[in-house]
Amino acid sequence: MANILLIEDDKKTADFIxxxxxxxxxxxxxxxxxxxxxxxxxxxxxxxxxxxxxLPGLDGLSLVEQLRSAGSTMPILFLSGRKTVEDRLSGFKAxxxxxxxxxxxxAELVARLFALLRRSQPASEQSLLSVADLELDLLARKVSRxxxxxxxxxxxxxxxxxxxxxKGRVISKMMxxxxxxxxxxxxxxxxxxxxxxxxxxxxxxxxxxxxIHTVRGVGYVLDEKR
Length: 226
Description:
Elements: E1 3-7, H1 11-23, E2 27-31, H2 34-43, E3 48-52, H3 60-69, E4 76-80, H4 85-94, E5 98-101, H5 106-119, E6 128-131, E7 134-137, E8 142-145, E9 148-150, H6 154-165, E10 171-172, H7 173-181, H8 191-203, E11 212-215, E12 219-222
Parallel strand pairs: 1-2, 1-3, 3-4, 4-5
Antiparallel strand pairs: 6-7, 7-8, 8-9, 10-12, 11-12
């Protein structure tokens, strides 16, 4: 599951992007102004960033220049209502890797984001996660167990990729809610349990070796040794 930094001050646009990316299996951190976005970009590791150019506090171009000066190499996609060639060139000169003009289609945004992620991961192993005979390809968005393809819904794919990225570690229900669903739920909700149950049916059903385990009172762990 790729971690994306979104810096966008328009709430409607930000909510639209966050919701769509969550459904695509991304984990999203959002900042509504340039200063906060810069702090997040400098403090946390992200796989890519989507940054609006017109931001309060610190504009997107200056923000990216500061990120690059600090040594950040994460792929950056600019969003802007400005569409002249000069505007695009300014974005690339500041350190952006791609430039998308508003209004845009969500499908195009996702396609460009995947392209940036592919270019930033030259080694194919970086997109492949595995344990035992279970394999997940983050970029191709495919899962197989014992060589047989496993069809997963978007949320199931996001959950499995998160567990694989932390294989051998016990992950709490709250951590899953925050990282896979990306927003707060009532702690008493059973969405995690329901998703884990569906995932087990697809990944572990009729297998001698079970990989997804419940640690009672703590959370879940993906491990071939239990």
